[in-house]
Amino acid sequence: MTALLSVRDLSIGFGAGESVVKGVSFDVDAGQTLALVGESGSGKTISCRAALRILPRTAQIRSGTITLNDSNGSVDLTRISERQMRDIRGNRVSMIFQEPMRSLSPLHKIGNQVSEVLWLHRGASEAQARKEVLTQFERVGFPDPQRAYDSYPFELSGGMRQRAMIAMAMVARPELLIADEPTTALDVTTQAQVLGLIKELQRETGMALILVTHDLGVVANMAEQVVVMHKGRVMESGAAAPILTSPAHPYTQQLFNAAPCIPDENAVGIPMSDEDMILEMKDVSKTYTMRSSRGWQGERLIHACRGVDLKLARGKTLAIVGESGSGKTTAARIALGAELPDPGGEVLFRTSATEDPITVHHMTRAQRTAFQRKAQMVFQDPYSSLSPRMRIQDAMTEPLEIHNIGTASEQRDKAADMLKRVGLNADMLKRYPHAFSGGQRQRLSIARAMMLDPQLIVCDEPTSALDVSVQEQILTLLENLQDSLNLSYLFISHDLAVVARIADEVAVMRRGLVVEQAPPETLFYNPRHPYTKALIAAQPEPDINRPINLKLVALGAGSPDSWDDAFRLTDSVIPSLVEMEPGHKVRCHV
Amino acid sequence: MVMLRYAVYRFFTMLLTLVVVSVLIFVIINLPPGDYLSNQIAELQASGQSAGVQKAEFLRKEYALDRPIWEQYLIWMGFWPGPHGFDGLLQGNYGWSFEFDRPVAEIVGDTLWLTVVVNLAAILFVYAVALPLGVIAAARSRTWIDYTSAFVGYLGLATPNFLLALILFYYGHQYFNLPIGGLMDPSFEGQPMSWDKLKSILVHLIVPTFVIGTSGASAMMQRLRANMLDELGKPYVETAIAKGMSPSRMLTKYPLRVAFNPFVADIGNLLPSMVSGSVLVSVVLGLQTIGPTLLTALKTQDQFLSAFILMFVALLTLIGTMISDILLVMLDPRIRYEGRDA
């Protein structure tokens, strides 16, 4: 039997440079799922895009063949004309992309964009296409296909947009679907549901799937064949089970070791001590008023945080976990004084156990300056949080200049010292940020935050833009810094596995409320709240014998009024946070 | 429904803005010390012509120039009874031009709609030229097409309009027998509209349209090209290609739609810049537009004439902005549904 798609000796390069994909070969059989795994820069995306020749303008396929062998015959996709290629795209082979937010045109209705595939390839009339698209919408799980058809992308959530993308890719019934990191930009629970959907559709239609991903957990859940890529070459390939259980290549092993996972052994977490609280948030709420810019539309209220009570002991890490829109970032911004809480809420900060606390939102000028030196932030996106026009040295010494600390040469020495601390070289001070990789940039961000010798660092998803192996390094760095300098972290994340590793206490947020709070060991071994259970269940594990339990995900990730009676949350009735056992609080009706 | 409500809302805000603008115009025109009549009286008194002084004093009373400025304003607008009862802009009395010694309505008369015609023609020209060229330049960026159009565009931007006017005049007349000067053949002036008159106007429009529109078109083209290039890098363009669309259809359906917004938003700004930018051209080409008249009126402190012209330009601008706002809401669902519950 010949493979549906067979790639042989594929090499791709940019301009006159060295090839970025070097002699890559793999096969996909009909109905099968092949996962292309690798870190950024491994060439996985370029290789799969070459199949549809959707490449950057300067990229050229230098050698090799890509043969498509479907029911319409056999073609070499690298040789055919652009016009023939067009007939294949979206029709015989289709593709979905990483960012559902930006992969749909904002100005056209979803229905129009999906129907277009049928107009193009089937010559379908408007009405025919509409009928078929509506059926497809129903299959991908739109609760109200008619409404979705007439919606614009910005009216749908990320998960729904990715469903629309899947519908678009599937509507012409291609025999091969290429999915380029289809769930990387989504929340874990949404990711679990979208992966489940792709699998189910695959079962129904028997199409083959090439899944490009960096997440071994996703691979374990989806793939039958795996190709591991590194620096443009295939490191290891073959059936998923053996590779995932006993990787032969050292690079694959390294990937596995770096992947954090949620522990499941029975351990009793030690609740944080109450003695030396560096940060206390008391009944913090934040309500935004959305006022339309037009006079003829009313305003509405958005509750970003509701009655958040959190404590962080000195030298410890408190993690806030939740999906996008859960209010975790707002809580962190309030903790830093960047945002004012609603009246009644209070944030207290203590420089030492013996000193009186300062109220973060009622500080004198001098107190504020002192507080800013003690509390710093590390941001999510290392690419946009450093000014591209400032040398590293200037970016690093700027905080010292603002606070008038030291002479210029002292500042420089401190910057050099800090760079060494985060594992970079002092001779990098003269460079600009573009000369650094994502992981190095995140080290720089951490170094910059450390320049003022802070006691508290707020980390807003510091590793979610990074590859797993780099993530591992950054987490280790954060741990080392904490140990040597007795730092306290307020750690914001959506990734339970990362949190499991670094946190001393975890608060799970949903819709602005803390729904469950406990030390990580307790939380992961004995989760009580349906939403926490869903989060844990949705986390893809790089273990082929532990597939995602979609039922658990669906139970907890849905709307809060679909939760069990004991946990139900409506606009008017909000259960209170109850301490179930020492240090384990759950929001439920008792 | 949303659209209609917005249009009505936008119309009323436009009226409100117009009133505010009218106050500003009136105040600014009255800012320099003296007015046409007091200047004239001073002059007459100096040369001892008492009869003239009397006439000027009479006119001062007649046009309420002896009253406080806020009262003058209200009378001018027709909100307040003047010496002859309510008789201002609202009642259709545009005032009296002291310089020309004729009613303002008579002086501006034809030139009003000729101004509109010339500028509309120029705007249509701008859009007709900039749209295809901008798109092609973006789609073929960094090729000879792009470079050529950019070169021609910069030439268009850098050449002074009146110079371009003179050059085109000469060659247009020499090789294509295009008429020189004016907006119609002199024999049609003051005649009722007829087929021949229309034809004459259209032929006369060619050179002015080109001259006034060139710099606007090249600026617009460059902007559209930049917008298009931004959009071409967006993931939804890739999605469209992955669907199997042909390049031309993909370009016009997706990125152009998004890049079009600033294009539409410019309608409002184009009008006033064309009116003021075309003064020199109108003088050179002998066009009977409002620009040169405005220049004279401002120089001689002929307040009612200049105020009326400025009001007229302001009205054009406001209408232009209103049209572009309403078009934007129609074109872009994100603006339409902003704040709507998802």
TrEMBL record, chain A:
Biological process terms in GO annotation: peptide transport; transmembrane transport
Compartment(s): Cell inner membrane
Keyword ATP-binding among UniProt keywords: yes
UniProt xrefs under InterPro entries: AAA+_ATPase (IPR003593), ABC_Ni/Peptide_Import (IPR050388), ABC_transporter-like_ATP-bd (IPR003439), ABC_transporter-like_CS (IPR017871), Oligopep_ABC_C (IPR013563), P-loop_NTPase (IPR027417)
Membrane topology of this protein: Peripheral membrane protein
The organism's place on the tree of life at top rank: Bacteria
A GO-annotated cellular component: plasma membrane
Domain ABC transporter intervals: 5-256, 279-536
GO molecular function, one term: ATP binding
Record NCBIfam families: PRK11308.1
Recorded family membership: Belongs to the ABC transporter superfamily.
Record protein name field: ABC transporter ATP-binding protein
Species the sequence originates in: Ruegeria profundi
From TrEMBL, chain B:
Superkingdom per UniProt: Bacteria
Annotated GO biological process: transmembrane transport
Any matching Pfam family: BPD_transp_1_N
Keyword annotations: Cell membrane, Membrane, Transmembrane, Transmembrane helix, Transport
Membrane topology: Multi-pass membrane protein
Compartments it resides in: Cell membrane
Residues annotated as domain ABC transmembrane type-1: 112-328
Predominant subcellular localization, coarse grouping: membrane
Keyword Amino-acid biosynthesis assigned: no
Keyword RNA-binding: no
InterPro entries reported in the protein's UniProt record: BPD_transp_1_N, MetI-like, MetI-like_sf
Cellular-component GO terms for this entry: plasma membrane
Residues annotated as transmembrane: 7-29, 112-139, 151-171, 201-221, 304-331
Recorded family membership: Belongs to the binding-protein-dependent transport system permease family.
Protein name per Swiss-Prot or TrEMBL: ABC transporter permease
Species of the source: Ruegeria profundi
